[in-house]
Amino acid sequence: MTAEEPKKTRSTAQKAVIRSALESEKRFVSAQQLHRTLEDQGHTVGLATVYRQLNSLSDSGHADSITIAEKQLFRACAQDEHHHHLVCENCGKAVEVEPPSEDWITTTARVHGFEVTRHMFEIFGLCAECAASAQSR
Amino acid sequence: MTAEEPKKTRSTAQKAVIRSALESEKRFVSAQQLHRTLEDQGHTVGLATVYRQLNSLSDSGHADSITIAEKQLFRACAQDEHHHHLVCENCGKAVEVEPPSEDWITTTARVHGFEVTRHMFEIFGLCAECAASAQSR
DNA sequence: TCCGCTAATGGTAACGTTTTTCATTAATAC
DNA sequence: GTATTAATGAAAAACGTTACCATTAGCGGA
Q1: In the complex, which nucleotide's C1' lies nearest to the CA atom of residue B52?
Q2: What is the model's pLDDT at position A110?
Q3: DSSP state of A42
Q4: For A110-129, how does the pLDDT look when each residue is reduced to its tens digit (9 = 90+)?
Q5: B113 inside 8 A of chain A by CB
Q6: Considering the domain A8-78, what is its CATH architecture?
Q7: Is it the case that residue A22 has pLDDT exceeding 90?
Q8: Is the CB of B16 under 7 A from strand C?
Q9: CATH 3.30.1490.190 in chain B, residues?
Q10: N or C: which terminus of chain B carries fewer CB neighbours within 10 A?
């Protein structure tokens, strides 16, 4: 019964930089990729901080995260609502997609005695550019 | 233009043991869990071998794998066809489910200029038993 | 404006999982 | 049986990620 703590956070330069860097990416990127990007831009941000911010953005719903090849990738998402992605396996570019009714999920789960907590659905493929360059390979 | 090598493999006791151990699980298990299980059963199999076999089973399509909390989990799958799971987040128990038509996937992808290579769709929740024990907590 | 509190940072060490290495074992073909 | 070499296992390396902790710096109040 502990009351909801106000939980004061401070706005720092690093937070702003990380967040804006993530938002300017339309691809899913890893913490390390983002860290390198920031370094290249001349910003000195610790890797630990990048991890921390990315995780907190993900927790607060300001970023989506998926796991590919044992690596966690992040992407900023504007809308707070639940949504899914169409991800390019080559360059990481992603598009948010809207699947048809997901009602059957809870229905199906109930049939098996399950109580749904969450679901994930991601489509992987090659975007137009990557598909083109792959063909000419 | 290298011809398809016959790629001869040898059947070993370890392969058999690992495969049968995985098949007797109706849950998703990690390499380490399976390794411990084998040890408990009196089998002495190297951890590296468990990893190797699990990966090769996954590659050959004889096992499905998902990633939860940075860990890779495996599960034997009888059917070679594409399928999805309803997974208990607590105990790992899984049921194969059949989603409605997935035609819209390729359609949607095409709209965005993507060429679909694969898609993943997993539902997570609590099975009847785990939900019950969670409530009485 | 300065002060004090402490959230946040950053470098590094630690961690856990997975892969690689390499000498040894053993499955297959002859 | 013998030769060949795929497969194994123990340990080390690699990898992504988190924890630690001394230091920095937001922010509210004197």
Answers
A1: C19
A2: 94
A3: T
A4: 999 999 988 989 999 999 98
A5: yes
A6: Orthogonal Bundle (1.10)
A7: yes
A8: no
A9: 82-137
A10: N
pLDDT of residue B52: 98
* CATH architecture of the domain with residue range B82-137: 2-Layer Sandwich (3.30)
Residue B1, chain A, CB below 8 Å: the answer is no
Nearest one of A72, A122, A55, A50 to B70, comparing CA atoms: A72
Fold category of B10-78 in CATH: Arc Repressor Mutant, subunit A (1.10.10)
Q: Give the E-state strand segments of B44-93 in sequence order.
A: 63-68, 71-76, 84-88
Residue indicated by tokens 């899984």: B94
Please give the Cα distance from A105 to B62 (Å, whole number): 25
Give chain A positions within 8 Å (CB) of B120: 120-122, 124
Read off the pLDDT band of A3 (50, 70, 90). Answer: very low
Residues of chain B positioned with their CB less than 8 A from the CB of A109:
86, 123, 125
Return the C-alpha torsion angle A11, A13, A14, A16, nearest 10. Answer: 70
- Strand C positions with any atom < 7 Å from protein CB? 7-12, 17-21, 26-28
Mean pLDDT over B106-110 rounds to: 93
Q: What are phi and psi of A91, to 5 degrees?
A: -105, -10
Cβ of B123 and A105 within 8 Å? yes
